[in-house]
Amino acid sequence: MSKIKIFALGGLNETGKNMYVVNVDDNIFIFDAGLKYGNDKMLGIDYIIPNPEYLIKNRKNIRGLFLTHGHESHMGGVSDLIKAIPEIPVYATKFTMEIVKRDLMEDGITKANLKEIKPHQSIGFTKELVVFPINVTHSIPDSVCYVLYTKDGAIVYTGDFVFDSNMQGAYKTDIGKLAYVGKQGVLCLLAESIYSDKPGFTTPNNRVSDFIADVLSKYDDRIIATILPAHIYRVQEIFNEVMKTHRKIVIMGKSLQDMINMAIDMNYITIDKDRIGDLSNLNDKGVVVLISDEKEKPFANLERILKGFDKYIKLKDTDTIFITEPSYAGMEKRYAVILDEIAKENLNVECLSSKKHLLHHASREDLSMMINLMNPKYYFPVKGEYRHQYQNADIAYDLGMPRENIILKLNGDVAEFIDGNLQETNEHIDIDDILIDGKTQNDIGELVLKDREMLGENGIVIISATLDRQTKKLIAGPEVLTRGFIYVKENQDMVEVTKEISLRVINDNINATTNKIDYTKIKNEVREELGKYFYKETEAKPMIITVIQEI
Questions:
Q1: Do 118 and 193 lie in a common domain?
Q2: Which residues, including other chains, have CB under 8 Å from residue 510's CB and lie 6 or more apart?
C-alpha cells in the first residue's frame, strides 16, 4: 500500500509564505520556502515565515527543498530554514541559487547543502521517486515547475507561471515537456490561484514596453522610476526602451544595483554599459533614475525622496515619477497614499493600471491550458486568498473535473492519497507563524505584539523610586516619567496624584518591624491602582512599569 500526503505550511488563504509539503511513504519533499512581509498593524515585524516544527521533527525523512524561482514569497525563508535544519538539501536553478547564496552570505551562513540543478534533468531518489524540473515563464529567469514522479502518478507543482510565447531564452516555457508529463499520467496538480478571477490569458497584459516607450517620449526631463528588484524582465523592458533613446540610466540603492549587476554578469540582462551612469549623472536632463520598490515597505524609497530626506535625490518641478509595477493584492491602500503624496508635490506621475496591466501570474485561460496539458486526476488550487483558491477550483470544474476531485484546503489541512485515491481525513498538521523582527531568529510572538500595540495606542508610564538599603526608607521619588500618554506640563495635577498613589502603595508594603519589602507586590499594586485611576481620568490604559532601586 502506498500513502501520499500533501499539505501546506504556508501559502493558502494568504499572499506569500509559500511552502508546500509532499510526503510519499515517509519521503518528504518541500516545494518553496517563502516569506511574507508584516503590515502596518504588525508593529515592527519585518517578515513572517512558516513554523518549521513539523520539518524539524521529521528532518531525517526530508529528501530536499525545491525552489521554483527567486522571488522572496517563494524563497525568502530559505536562510531561516537552513538555520533550523542545516543539513537540508536545497535544489534550485542557476539564477535562483545565486540569489539564495547572496541571502545566505548576508545572514552570515557559510555552510549549506546547496545543489544547483538544470531544467529537464531528472533528480533521482529511488527507482520510483524522481523529481523533474521544467522551465516555465515568469518575471524572473530560470523559473521552473516541478514534477514529482511516484508509482501512483506524477504530482506537479507549477510555481508562478504564464503562457507567453514572446518570452524566450531563460523565460521560455517548455510546453512540449508539460504535455509529455500530462500524457504519462498526473495524479495531482497544484497550481497558483491569485489571478484566477481574471478572464483570458495574462499575456499580453504582462508586457509594458509600449507603455514605457510612451512615457519616455512624453517627458523630456528626469524620470524617477520605481521597480521591484527581482522583476528582471521588467528591468530588461526598461533598458530596451531607454537604449532606443539618448538617455542614461542611474541605478540607486545597493540591493537593486547588486541584483541588476548580477543579472548582467550572468547574461540574463543585456544593456550597453555606457548607458549606465553614476551619481554625477543624477541631475542630467532626461536621465532615468531607477529606485527600488521594496516589498517589505512598498514605496519606502520613493516616500523618502518625496519628503526630502534622500541624501542624493532632490525633487525638481520638472521631474516625472514613473511607477513601473501595477498594484498587487494588499498594496492598494499604500498605492493610493503614495499617489496622493506625489500630487501634493505637483509632479507628473505615470503608473500602470491594475486593470490593464498584470504581473506574470496565471489568469483563467492560463490555468485552463495548464489543466488541459496536465489532465490531472485531482486538482489542488494553492497560493492566494481562499476566494482565489475557490475561483481556481471553479475553473477545473468548468473543464469537467468532478467536484470531489478538486481539493480546497487551508494551511495544515492534509490531503491523503492511498494507492492513488483521495481519502476522507480530518488530519491536520499543527501550523503557526514565526514573526521575525530585524535580524533576530527568535519568534517575536503575540505577547510582544500586544505590548507594542499597547505602547503605540496608550503610551507608557514609568514610576521610579530609591530606597535606603538598610532602613528601607524612601530616599528619592517616586518620580513619574511618561511617553505617549499625557502632556505633562498641562497635567501636573494628574502627575501629583500619580505620585501620591505610588507613595502610598510603597509605604503600605514596607514592614517597619523587619525592614522587609515585597517588591513584586508593590509593582502589582502600583499597576492595578494607577491603571484604575488613569482609565477613570482618560479612558486610556498605558503600560505601567515600576522601577525601585536600593542604595
A1: yes
A2: 472, 516, 517
